[in-house]
Design brief:
By secondary structure, the protein is mainly α. The chain is built from 16 helices and no strands. It has helices at residues 3-41, 44-79, 86-109, 111-117, 123-148, 152-174, 181-190, 198-204, 228-246, 248-256, 258-295, 298-338, 346-371, 375-395, 400-424, 439-447.
Length: 453
């Protein structure tokens, strides 16, 4: 890549990071307003049912449909300069439609056990789950389309439109215009459909001409195997992240009921809120590190290490302050935010706050490892930590609540320690270097964006 082209790509990613950071921050804040209003407006059991619906939707949707977002984003980014992206769009659409159809058929076949055991024999919640999953198959396709074409303003607008549509439903319940779980569930089901309006807009608009031409012979044909080890590694990370951050409520739901699931979900907000906001930092950190590594000189290597150490120190300071804060006033703040239906113990909140610091440490180290081109090695610690968390919660040596709290913190600590070992060892031969401005960098950056809308 020529200097002018490299500078153009760097500037484009800087602008993209700013847009994504702003959208993530606002979408994350509005998502927690959603849960705060829902917790205040619904009974403990009703709120728990909404939490279970939310958790089930995003566990399944992220696992099935986010891979297509990444596949489409990378493929379009690689092909944009050639003008030949129809094959990528067609292949991704076929794959996504097939996944959506199979998921819908399977859910309909097992409707009764899901409805009885997960949603307390409430058919409206099952249909809301099915509708939301179909909607997210379109939403993730739209996200991949917009990201691959570099249309991050539209990407940010898509995220915010989903959050606002979902928030509208719970505002109606909080205002007394509607009542019960059905309006909120309908909002969750319809929210991803807001992304449909962005598909024709994204197809109609074209990204500005590139500063250098791309050799079409170097662009591989899109297939399920595109991306190789890097894609597999990122997908393992995403699935493991969903297990660590979202599955706790389902384990508690199975053991204690819907109201208890709502309680542990609120407790884990101590971790999820900072994680969502930190993803804005993570999304901009990776391009920065990739550019430093691509330069290859000692000054850039030192800047790489300094960026990591500075971020880790900031994480440590924030986690320490949060832990002291939840010990001092945590239960009072939680009741103010989510209502007085639950009693929060300081120890549980402190355990999760420590786990939050360890998890953010792991995310920071993960960005460094990906920038070094060792994503496949990083995927192993992610998988191991997810398995540890699941095993502890299936075993439940303590109460279901404490098992989730301690399981999250222990898994996050294991993840951070193992990723540090990967980061600290000699880089050796990279599995697939992450080049600045490449489809691989875009794909890895999108992988840092957790589900907020």
């Amino acid at each position: 890549m020529q200097p002018d082209a490299a500078h153009g790509e760097t500037s484009r990613y800087r602008r993209s990071a700013v847009k994504l950071s702003a959208a993530l921050g606002l979408a994350g804040a509005l998502t927690y307003v959603f849960f705060g209003l829902a917790s205040h407006s619904l009974s403990a059991d009703e709120y728990g049912e909404i939490v279970v619906l939310w958790t089930a939707v995003f566990l399944v949707a992220a696992t099935l449909f986010r891979p297509i977002e990444h596949l489409l984003a990378r493929s379009l980014a690689e092909r944009m300069d050639t003008g030949h992206d129809a094959d990528a769009l067609r292949a991704a659409a076929i794959i996504q439609f097939a996944l959506c159809a199979v998921a819908a058929v399977v859910l309909l076949l097992v409707r009764d056990p899901i409805q009885d055991n997960l949603f307390s024999d409430e058919p409206n919640l099952f249909w809301a789950m099915l509708g939301a999953l179909v909607g997210y198959s379109f939403a993730y396709f739209a996200r991949g389309l917009l990201a691959g074409r570099g249309q991050f303003s539209l990407y940010a607008a898509l995220l915010l439109s989903e959050v606002l549509l979902r928030l509208t439903a719970v505002v109606l319940v909080a205002a007394g215009v509607a009542s019960g779980t059905v309006p909120v569930a309908v909002g969750i089901a319809l929210a991803p459909l807001a992304g449909l309006i962005f598909i024709p807009v994204g197809l109609r608009r074209r990204r500005p001409a590139a500063t250098s031409a791309t050799d079409e012979r170097l662009v591989p044909e899109l297939s399920l195997g595109s991306g190789g080890a890097f894609t597999v590694a990122v997908l393992v990370m995403m699935l493991s992240e969903q297990v660590l951050l979202n599955s706790g409520a389902l384990f508690v739901r199975a053991a204690e009921g819907a109201a208890a699931a709502g309680f542990i979900f609120n407790v884990l907000m101590v971790a999820r809120a900072p994680v969502v906001l930190f993803q804005a930092v993570a999304a901009s950190l990776l391009p920065h590190l990739a550019r430093l590594r691509a330069r290859g000189d000692e000054a850039s290597a030192e800047a790489f290490r300094h960026s990591i150490s500075t971020t880790l120190m900031a994480v440590a300071a924030f986690a320490a302050a949060t832990t002291l804060g939840v010990i001092a006033v945590g239960p009072e703040v939680m009741k103010l935010a989510f209502g007085g239906d639950f009693d929060y113990d300081r120890l549980g909140l402190a355990i999760v706050a420590v786990g939050m610091g360890l998890y953010l440490t792991a995310v920071t180290l993960n960005q460094a490892v990906i920038a070094q081109g060792r994503a496949l090695r990083a995927a192993v610690p992610w998988l191991g930590s997810a398995l540890l968390f699941a095993a502890l919660n299936l075993w439940q040596p303590l109460s279901p609540f404490r098992s989730v709290e301690l399981g999250f913190t222990l898994a996050a600590g294991m993840l951070a320690a193992l990723l540090y070992l990967v980061y600290a060892t000699s880089p050796g031969r990279a599995e697939e270097p992450v080049e600045p401005g490449s489809g691989a960098e875009l794909e890895a950056t999108l992988a840092t964006i957790d589900e907020v809308g």
